[in-house]
UniProtKB/TrEMBL annotation:
Superkingdom of the organism of origin: Bacteria
Record's protein name: Pyridoxal phosphate-dependent aminotransferase
Cross-referenced Gene3D superfamilies: Aspartate Aminotransferase, domain 1 (3.90.1150.10), Type I PLP-dependent aspartate aminotransferase-like (Major domain) (3.40.640.10)
Co-factor(s): pyridoxal 5'-phosphate
Length: 380
């Protein structure tokens, strides 16, 4: 393993999901639902396979039906206009979009400002691009960015700001005033913004606001999302990028040599999913809101300090009130102690101390699974 990837051996998600399987534990670690998305969408994927649509290499930028559906979705929900022919790119999940965007847009030595805790692929992809990550730490209890601190982090080497809203793992959703300040900073210093919005439809209070919609931002923003979370098919790995034609062309260049294209039949199904009625998105949100509160209450009863998230399907907790100090040790022992798996937030920090007592639980599980997990955690 080269120096750039040193210390990044196995992702925490693989480690903890393997532990869940090995111990037969309830897995509230890796974020994937235990109920698949709409049957009509699964049937669309099956129909595409059986009907011979997408079984051979689809077009590099993605099938036209999906690019059109992505453009229409951006228009419908946010009033953002993108040309499906030149300003939309389909990727193998948001993961590939993030990798391709960073590899395409960064020069070695560039600095990337990103919120810490970071989703784990950010650090790895910034490193693979030979760039340097510059963390802006989100601190408890509210995990909001200190925008004066952000301003102070900008240097002549800063190339881009990597945003994630709603934010994994804290659940922070950037508010319009925060986005405006970040946008002004980007314009002032001529920075690019890559924004990871995979949880765009999992927002419980204030609504999701894409930074690309703000003045001066369309031309400097690469917006990324994917079907995994919104449609509860995380295994399909269909993601997308929307940006101006030159930015999309740059990202496409990198994408061509990473995967060339993404799985064909699922693209037909996701094109259909993006056209589900608004009631689909409302129901998804309402169900998850209820589950959020169920698990927040359960974890509070079990003695955790709970930070109620505004978005995503993750709850960050502090284990200090349980007499625990170290989230990584706690998560490694938890399956043996009570048959539950969670994710230690410290792995998403450079500043390990800021994340040490924090542990993340997902609530995208059936109610009885959440209730059973809580019953087990209460016996700790
Ligand atoms: N970004 C964030 C913040 C995530 O939590 C995830 C996990 N779904 C991804 C990107 C990756 O998304 P995908 O599964 O579409 O590659
Ligand atoms: N995004 C999901 C999470 O944060 C899973 C990602 C993964 O397994 N790489 O849990």
């Amino acid at each position: 393993l080269n120096r750039r990837l040193a210390g990044m051996g196995t992702t925490i998600f693989a480690e903890m999901s393997a532990l869940a399987t090995a111990t037969g534990s309830i897995n509230l670690g890796q974020g994937f639902p235990d109920t698949d998305g709409p049957r009509s969408i699964a049937e669309a994927a099956a129909d595409a396979v059986l009907g011979g649509r997408g079984n051979q290499y689809p077009p590099g930028p993605g099938i036209p039906e999906l690019r059109q559906a992505v453009a229409d979705h951006q228009q419908h929900f946010y009033g953002l206009e993108y040309d499906p022919d030149t300003e939309v790119l389909v990727t193998a999940g948001a993961t590939e979009a993030i990798a391709a965007a960073l590899l395409a847009l960064l020069e070695p030595g560039d600095e990337v400002i990103a919120f810490e805790p970071f989703y784990d692929s950010y650090a790895a992809c910034i490193a693979m691009a030979g760039a340097t990550r510059v963390p802006l730490t989100l601190r408890q209890p509210d995990f909001r960015p200190d925008l004066d601190e952000l301003r102070a982090l900008v240097t002549p080497r800063t190339r881009l700001i990597l945003l994630n809203t709603p934010h994994n793992p804290t659940g922070t959703v950037l508010h319009p005033d925060e986005l405006r300040t970040i946008a002004q900073l980007a314009v002032e210093h001529d920075l690019l913004v890559i924004t990871d919005e995979v949880y765009e439809h999992l927002v419980f209070a204030t609504g999701h606001h894409p930074i690309a919609a703000l003045p001066g931002m369309r031309e400097r923003t690469v917006s990324i999302s994917s079907a995994g979370k919104t449609f509860s098919f995380t295994g399909w790995k269909v993601g997308w990028v929307t940006a101006t034609a030159p930015l999309v062309a740059a990202v496409r260049t990198a994408k061509q040599y990473l995967t060339y294209v993404s799985a064909g039949p699922f693209q037909y199904a996701v094109a259909q999913a993006l056209r589900l009625p608004d009631s689909y998105f409302d129901t998804l949100r309402a169900d998850l809101l209820r589950k959020r509160d169920l698990l927040c209450e359960g974890l509070t009863d079990a003695g955790f300090q709970v930070f109620r998230p505004e978005g995503t399907y993750f709850i960050t907790t502090d284990i200090t009130p349980l007499g625990e100090k170290d989230g990584l040790a706690f998560c490694r022992a938890l399956p043996e102690r009570c048959g539950v798996v969670a994710i230690p937030n410290s792995v998403f920090y450079d500043d390990i101390e800021a994340g040490r007592p924090l542990v993340r639980f997902t609530f995208c599980k059936q109610d009885d699974v959440l209730n059973e997990a809580v019953a087990r955690l209460r016996r700790l």
